[in-house]
Every structure is written in structure tokens, then in C-alpha cells.
Design goal:
Blueprint lengths: L2 H21 L12 H12 L9 H4 L2 H16 L1 H12 L5 H11 L7 H31 L1 H16 L18 H16 L1 H15 L10 H25 L11 H15 L14 H13 L12 H15 L6 E2 L2 E2 L2 H28 L5 H12 L14 H16 L1 H9 L18
Helix pairs in contact: 1-2, 1-4, 1-6, 1-18, 2-4, 2-17, 4-5, 4-8, 5-6, 7-8, 7-9, 8-9, 9-12, 11-12, 11-13, 13-16, 14-15, 15-16, 15-17, 16-17
Length: about 450
């Protein structure tokens, strides 16, 4: 039982447990046994923090079913190892070497020191942001739904936004609230902070604390912090401008909105497409240009060590830096005057190739099982599932049972990661002392 297998089987165990509980009569509003495929799809989507659903969550599931979904995407957002470690900390169990190695790989951190402290910081950060989101969303929901139901709506959507799960209790997501500045800023803020990763947030906090304590030593940010923050900002701005340009005259989306609402809708879509599938417009009415832009943004995703999916923005920056170095005829890949290790470049290439292969295979299989579906809609749905985004053009509920099972597998692969899954299947690599001769070949 390798560490990779422990993590993959852990996620699988949570999905199976969630499926069984969601099948129970107490989980549905009809008080009858749930359809196994609906339960499996919903549990997988929740644990993988995807947000795709084949039913209306707000009307199909009872309060206890909705509460269970919240628990599942909270566990999925934290990660199996983080949630398990926190539970063991509550039980007072001591951690051995194997536990520390597993935690190190799950959090993708260097070294084994400070893992337990990082878990405590992650839990504290999660609680702070989710509770803040609840208080900010209360004024949005309570005037219309009353305090009790409004509080539940605030809790559900705050946790869903922070974990990037994108589940909503409203049938049309946040379309009815697209003119609400408070909701737009709160939801997008939770999504962004949930998607940049815990280490970036903690590093920001530590640097801010040093400034407030008037410590005069020079502040040096890590390479991960620089890459994540700069790339996130660039993608958010470019995504907003791209959606404005593509949908400005579309009467079904931006065309009927005033300038302020157009800007908010484009900003919300730019944030949501990269990590969390909430929407304030009808995604099914987007133009092909906008759907393609959204597909690219979903594939990129957000930061590593976060609740988001995709290939991650650090992977994108490593590969673009490789391209830049190649065009300049350099033999070293640099990022912010730091040399990128060859092992990291190989990992980035493996992530992209594995991700593209998964998306292509899933798209092909669904095209075979459901040949009447539009290809772009199918690709969009598969990319949304793999990148754990949760946006849909509206075909999720109507696809066949085999296609739903393919999406279940795609969501699972996207959440645990292609490389981690392959490591779980093949086992840990064995070092070799053999070095083969080098030879050139034509490339490009």
C-alpha cells in the first residue's frame, strides 16, 4: 500500500460512503430510495468538488441530503489526507514517518517538517474564510427567504464557493443575483482565495504580519507566491476582457445588460470558469467563441495545493518558460531569476500530456455513447468534469447512463491527479543506476 494508493483509495472510500448515504430515503425529498447512478454521480461530484449534477440539488434532496453534500465537498475541498489528519489530531493520535510522508505528498510540499502545523493553519484558514462568507451572504438571502433558510443558503454557498465545489441550491445558480454587487464580490472572492492555495494565503499573512510589526528586514516572497499571484491576476484580467469581447452583442447573455452588469458578468465568468462552476448567465447560450475560451480557462485551472482542478497555473508558467527558453536558444529555464529543475519540467509535461489524453478519451467515449450530442458541448462537459469546474451547457441530466459513468471516472481522475493515479496503479518508481547513451532526433 503505497502513499499514492492510500490517497486514491481514500477518495474512493469517501465517494462510496457518500453514495450509500445519498441512496437512503432520508436524503431525498420524496423519502424514497435514490437512483444509484444519481447518488454515485452526486457523491463523486461533491467529493471531487466539481459541481456537476444530474438533478436539481435544492428540490431533489432533503435538508439531510443537502447537509451530507456539504460534508462531502468540505472533505473533498480539504483533501482526503488533510481531513483524515485533522480527524486523527482530534483523536490525539501521534504521527509516524509514513503518515508524514503521505501528508507531504498530499500537500505537495517540500520536506516533512511542519506538516501538522500546516494542517492546523489550513483548517483555521478554511474556517475564517467560510464564516466570513456566511456573514457577507446573509444580507443577500435573509430578506427574501427569512433568517433560518437564509442562513442555510449562506452556509451552503459559502462553503461551496470556498471549496470551489460550485454546488448551488438554486436551479439557475446565481442568475437571479447577477446585479447584486455584494454576492458577486463575495462569491468571486471566496473562489479566488480558495483557488490560489493555502500556502500563498499563509505566506501573505506572514508577510503582512511582519509589516504590521514594523520589522525592517527585506520581504522576500517565494517563487511559488510570485508565479501564482501574477499568473492569477493576468488570467483574470484576460478572461474578463475576452468574455466581454466575445459576448458583448449576444442578446442571450451580455447584450441586454447595462455596462455595470456586463462587467460584473464577465468578471464572474472569468473567475468561475477556471475553478468553480457558478454562473450568473445561461452557459448554454454562450457563443462558440466564448465556450472555447471557457474550455481553455478550465483546462488551465488555478493554483496547486488549492481546491481547484485543471493542469494548474504553475504548470502553464513552467511550460511557457520552456518555450521562451527554446526560442531564445537557452539551455536553462528561468522563472523570476530562478532556475527550474529538470524534474519539475518533466512533471509539468507529464501533467499536460496525461490531462489531454484523459480529456480526449472521455470525449471520444461520450461521443460514441451519445452520438446526438453537439461535439463542443460534449468537450465542454468533459473538460468541466476533468478540471472539477462544474459548468455545463445543460446536457448533464439528459446524457445516457454510460456517459454519466464516464463523467464520474473523469471527475475522479481530475481530482486525484493524473500522475498520482498512475503512480497508484504502477507503484513507486524504482531507481536505476543504468545510464543509456544519448542521441539526437528531429523535433518540431
Amino acid at each position: 500500500m503505497t502513499v499514492a494508493r492510500t490517497i486514491c483509495l481514500g477518495f474512493l472510500a469517501v465517494i462510496i460512503a457518500g453514495t450509500i448515504l445519498l441512496m437512503m430515503p432520508f436524503s431525498t425529498n420524496s423519502s424514497t430510495w435514490n437512483d444509484p447512478i444519481v447518488a454515485l454521480f452526486t457523491a463523486t461530484s461533491a467529493v471531487c468538488v466539481t459541481g456537476l449534477s444530474v438533478v436539481n440539488i435544492g428540490t431533489y434532496f432533503s435538508f439531510w441530503g443537502q447537509f451530507l453534500i456539504v460534508v462531502l465537498f468540505q472533505i473533498g475541498g480539504l483533501g482526503y489526507m488533510t481531513a483524515t489528519t485533522f480527524l486523527l489530531l482530534l483523536l490525539g493520535r501521534k504521527f509516524g514517518l509514513r503518515d508524514k510522508i503521505a501528508l507531504q505528498q498530499a500537500l505537495d510540499k517540500q520536506g516533512m517538517q511542519g506538516g501538522i502545523q500546516l494542517i492546523r493553519s489550513i483548517i483555521a484558514t478554511t474556517m475564517i474564510f467560510e464564516i466570513t462568507g456566511i456573514f457577507l451572504l446573509l444580507p443577500v438571502f435573509t430578506p427574501e427567504y427569512g433568517f433560518i433558510h437564509g442562513l442555510w443558503l449562506a452556509i451552503f454557498h459559502s462553503v461551496s464557493a470556498w471549496t470551489n465545489a460550485s454546488f448551488s441550491l438554486f436551479q439557475n445558480s446565481f442568475i437571479n443575483y447577477r446585479s447584486s454587487v455584494l454576492l458577486n464580490l463575495t462569491i468571486t472572492g471566496l473562489i479566488i482565495f480558495g483557488g490560489i492555495g493555502y500556502e500563498v494565503i499563509l505566506e501573505s499573512y506572514l508577510r503582512l504580519r511582519e509589516r504590521l510589526l514594523l520589522k525592517r528586514r527585506k520581504v522576500i516572497f517565494s517563487l511559488n507566491f510570485k508565479v501564482v499571484t501574477s499568473t492569477t491576476l493576468i488570467l483574470l484580467i484576460l478572461g474578463t476582457l475576452a468574455f466581454l469581447f466575445a459576448e458583448w452583442r449576444n442578446p442571450e447573455t451580455f447584450g441586454s445588460l447595462n455596462l455595470e452588469n456586463k462587467l460584473m458578468a464577465a468578471w464572474f465568468l472569468s473567475v468561475s470558469t477556471r475553478t468553480a462552476g457558478f454562473d450568473t448567465i445561461n452557459i448554454g447560450q454562450l457563443s462558440p467563441d466564448a465556450l472555447f475560451i471557457a474550455t481553455v480557462l478550465m483546462f488551465i485551472g488555478a493554483a496547486p495545493g488549492s481546491t481547484a482542478g485543471g493542469i494548474k497555473i504553475t504548470t502553464l508558467r513552467v511550460l511557457t518558460s520552456c518555450t521562451k527558453a527554446s526560442l531564445q536558444g537557452k539551455e536553462e529555464v528561468l522563472l523570476y531569476q530562478r532556475r527550474v529543475p529538470i524534474s519539475l519540467i518533466l512533471k509539468a509535461i507529464g501533467v499536460v500530456v496525461g490531462s489531454l489524453t484523459t480529456v480526449m478519451i472521455s470525449t471520444t467515449l461520450i461521443s460514441i455513447t451519445d452520438p446526438k450530442l453537439n461535439f463542443l458541448d460534449t468537450l465542454f462537459e468533459v473538460m468541466s468534469a476533468f478540471a472539477t469546474v462544474g459548468l455545463s451547457t445543460g446536457i448533464t441530466a439528459s446524457i445516457s447512463a454510460p456517459a454519466k459513468l464516464i463523467l464520474v471516472a473523469t471527475m475522479y481522475i481530475g481530482r486525484v491527479g493524473v500522475l498520482l493515479l498512475m503512480s497508484a496503479l504502477l507503484g513507486d518508481p524504482h531507481p536505476s543506476i543504468v545510464r543509456y547513451p544519448e542521441e539526437n532526433l528531429l523535433v518540431g
